[in-house]
Structures are given as C-alpha cells and as structure tokens.
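Entry:
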Amino acid sequence: MTQERRSISTLLADAECTPVLRTDFSDQEAWEDIRGTIETPTERDEFVADVTFFDDGSCAGLTAEEIVALVPDDYDHAFLVIVDDVATASDEMPLLCVDLADERGRTVRVVAAELWSIENNLSLANMDFEEFVDAAEADGVFRGF
C-alpha cells in the first residue's frame, strides 16, 4: 500500500458524518460554491445535508473505483460523495454519490442543492440508494422528487 493510499483510508476513518471528498482541485471558487450550496438549508423545510468535508490533496484525481477500493467493507457510512471535475465544471454541481452499503460502488449524480435529500433519507434508512438511482433523470442526475 502506498503512502498516499494509507493517508486516504486514515482520512476517511475520521468522517463523523457522510464524507464529501474533493478530488478536483482545478477551481477553488467552484469548490467554495459547492460547499456553500451543500451547507445552505432548503428554503421550504430548512433541511441540510449532514456531511464532513475533506479538502485534502491526497484525494486529487482519484476515481470512485479507486476510493471504494480504500474503504473498508465495514465502513460506518452507507455512501460517500465525490466532488470531481464534472461537479466543478457545471452550474448544477452534479456531485457523484457512491453506494457503500447495498451495491458497493454503484453511483448516481445529484445536484448539490439536493444532496440533503439523499443524505437525510439514507442516514435515517427512510429510503434505499436504489430509489435515488431510479429517480435520476435520463442523464443520470438526481434533481429531486
């Protein structure tokens, strides 16, 4: 195991809430916009995603597959979120959610403003990851119910 891989698995172990990993470091402003959007409660119900942000260069350029390979099978969180170059390049900020519980490695994109819906419902076991995958639009992005 390389030093980089060891540090990432240690990093993930420190997540108190659903981890949000930054893997694209090309646009600081986009990262700050994404964080702000995730941290802003919804207007109607004031829901917010309960997440732990990781802005660590050891995650730079990692793919979902590489990250999943570093996560122990008995990891405490049902999923994690990746802020990659696709998320930072779009006004919708389509974050990559990765299933770690039901079908390990399965993914769905979610616009940053709707991350709360996935995080809240999965954390409370109100819904399954598959329901969000099924609710995604034709382009594979979940934009809410």
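The chain has a mean pLDDT of 92.
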